[in-house]
Specification:
This protein has helices at residues 2-10, 37-44, 52-59, 72-86, 137-147, 167-170, 184-198, 203-218, 222-240, 291-302, 321-328, 343-365, 370-382, 435-452, 471-481, 517-545, and strands spanning 17-22, 28-34, 63-68, 102-105, 114-117, 126-128, 252-259, 264-272, 275-283, 311-314, 336-338, 391-400, 403-413, 416-417, 423-426, 464-468, 491-495, 500-502, 510-511. By secondary structure, the chain is an alpha+beta fold. α14 (435-452) packs parallel to α15.
Length: 547
């Protein structure tokens, strides 16, 4: 297979483009870009020492495709698009796709309203944020509504207006534009006051909320008073984030990146209206890219549907031209990249560096998953399997004397749990106490779901099936898998008493050395399958006890 790939590499063009690495099942496991496709892709197949994650990715490559682009910039942008589309396993940056909330208002509307959104669009509206941590965007919106009577409804003002106002008008929470209770000019004055608050001027809204809180307390409406007190506390929290030496309208993003031999991490700190609204660390541990390429890829993914400020600060200097051009495609203003050497901006960069250094040491290095990759490699060698063990699935049965029978499917990918793909089964067709038949049922259902491709976790074929049990359990499952799409999937069982590993057509079990990497991985996944099955059995038993 390597020879075939090397031949394919030799025919690659010297132009820029994007390459898509595929595993034996045709799944895209990595998307990369290159200024020179031939030079870049050939590096993966050279006999040189690589980081373990890169080596594992290379071991899983069965084929690859490539797309030629007119320029390196086009390759950069296309790579980001394909990563978002396919979400390859080895493209680890920002995989959760989490978007933090903004507050949006479109002043071009007849009667503008404020709303919470998670995506920034080119629609002419103003966006404030993102808000994170103690500054909750939804609570901030409620605070605006309790201080300024702006509308919260989705009413279209192109249609005939109402004759009667809604309840919010009666409660003093809306100025009633839908019923001509306020002119457009007066309404926009209120909207502008709310915008001034979001731009950093909190003095007026504090006074309004304080007066309303005192009135609520005097009228013994203590529930409302407490709510207003909490909103005042949130505004004070926002005020405490003010950076004294910065202008009130200062807006910038600060990035600090550090790396060790095996790991990289980056901190993003967001400053809006002279306040620190957001600070978060990300693991961008390398996959064979240079630091500049890794950071540029991160930035392009990070700024997907987010506000891009005019100023972006960094702790290190590198060639910003490519990322600058890429971001300019979705940005209507000039972007300046800078590495400050003194003053308040340098202090902000130093603060970000301190945060990311602490994160790297306590969250990444201390929880290094290299050992998980090593365990998976050790098990592959111990079982003499030709294919890397990317995905392991372990099955267990739990019941009490044949009642409330359940099964569990636990998935480990590259030696560590992937809990999103865990599945639990109620045994539907088996009567009495028969673990062999129960295992046959859940494996039959697993194969059926794989063939249907309806469930994402079931649509992947495992590289190794593990059964919690001895030779009998293994034989019963093997019998059921004959003639199915799982017939050629390697399968073993692990007997708990002596930790013996049984293999089909082998009368003598394997006994791995205690404490060995391969045995530790098998014990980890077997114990996790047992825990997951017992937990589900107890839930079902408790539920049935009350029916």
């Amino acid at each position: 297979m390597i020879d075939n790939l090397n031949q394919k590499v030799k025919s690659l063009p010297l132009s820029s483009g994007v390459y898509l690495m595929k595993n034996i099942n045709g799944e895209i496991i990595y998307v990369g870009k290159a200024k020179n496709l031939k030079n870049r892709v050939s590096q993966y197949f050279q006999n040189t020492k690589k980081p373990i994650k890169v080596q594992l990715m290379v071991d899983n490559i069965h084929d690859f495709e490539y797309i030629i682009t007119p320029s390196e910039l086009d390759a950069f942008i296309l790579e980001n698009t394909l990563i978002k589309k396919y979400k390859p396993f080895f493209n680890i940056l920002l995989k959760d796709g989490k978007q933090y909330p903004y507050i949006r208002v479109n002043q071009k509307d007849l009667y503008p309203r404020f709303s919470v959104v998670r995506k920034v669009k080119k629609d002419g509206a103003k966006y404030f944020g993102p808000y994170y941590g103690k500054i909750n965007a939804y609570e901030l919106l409620k605070t605006i509504n309790s201080a300024y009577p702006v509308r919260t409804c989705n009413k279209e003002f192109k249609v005939k207006k109402r004759t009667r106002p809604c309840l919010n008008y009666s409660l003093g929470l809306c100025s009633g534009p839908c019923c001509d209770k306020i002119s457009q000019e007066d309404y926009k004055i209120i909207v502008n006051k709310a915008i001034h608050f979001l731009n950093g001027d909190e003095k007026e809204i504090k006074e309004i909320l304080k007066n309303k809180m005192e009135l609520a307390s005097e009228s013994e409406n203590f529930e409302l008073a407490i709510t207003l007190r909490n909103r005042l506390a949130m505004i004070n929290e926002l005020s405490n984030k003010t950076i004294v030496d910065l202008a009130k309208n200062a807006e910038m993003d600060i990035f600090s990146v550090i790396e060790t031999e095996r790991h990289r991490a980056i901190n993003c700190t967001i400053v809006r209206t002279g306040k620190i609204l957001f600070s978060k660390n990300f693991d961008i541990s390398n996959s064979g890219e240079s630091l500049s390429e890794s950071v540029s890829s991160f930035l392009l993914q990070y700024y997907n549907e987010k506000l891009i400020p005019k100023l972006i600060l960094f702790n290190i200097d590198f060639d910003f031209n490519l990322i600058k051009e890429a971001l300019a495609v979705s940005c209507e203003h000039e972007i300046e990249f800078a590495v400050p050497i003194r003053g308040v901006k340098k202090k902000l960069v130093d603060m970000a560096t301190k945060n990311v250094t602490n994160f790297l040491q306590k969250e990444i290095i201390s929880k290094d998953d290299t050992i998980n990759f090593e365990m998976a490699n050790a098990l592959q060698k111990a079982l003499q399997l030709s294919k890397p063990l990317t995905r392991l699935e372990c099955y267990d049965i739990s019941h009490i004397s044949g009642t409330n029978k359940v099964g569990s499917m636990v998935v480990f990918e590259f030696g560590k749990p992937n809990k999103n793909d865990y599945r639990k089964f109620k045994i539907k067709t088996i009567e009495g106490n028969d673990d062999f038949a129960c295992l046959q049922e859940i494996l039959s259902r697993r194969v059926k779901d794989y063939d249907s491709k309806l469930d994402l976790s079931f649509s992947k074929k495992p590289d190794l099936l593990i059964i919690d049990g001895g030779k009998g359990q293994l034989s019963s499952v093997c019998e059921r898998l004959v003639g199915t799409s799982f017939e050629n999937v390697p399968i073993i069982s692990l007997a708990k008493k002596n930790e013996e590993v049984f293999i089909p057509q082998n009368s003598n079990p394997l006994v791995f050395e205690k404490g060995s990497l391969e045995l530790r991985l098998l014990q980890n996944i077997r114990d996790e399958a047992h825990r997951f099955a017992i937990t589900f059995h107890r839930e079902l038993r408790n539920k049935n006890a009350f029916n």
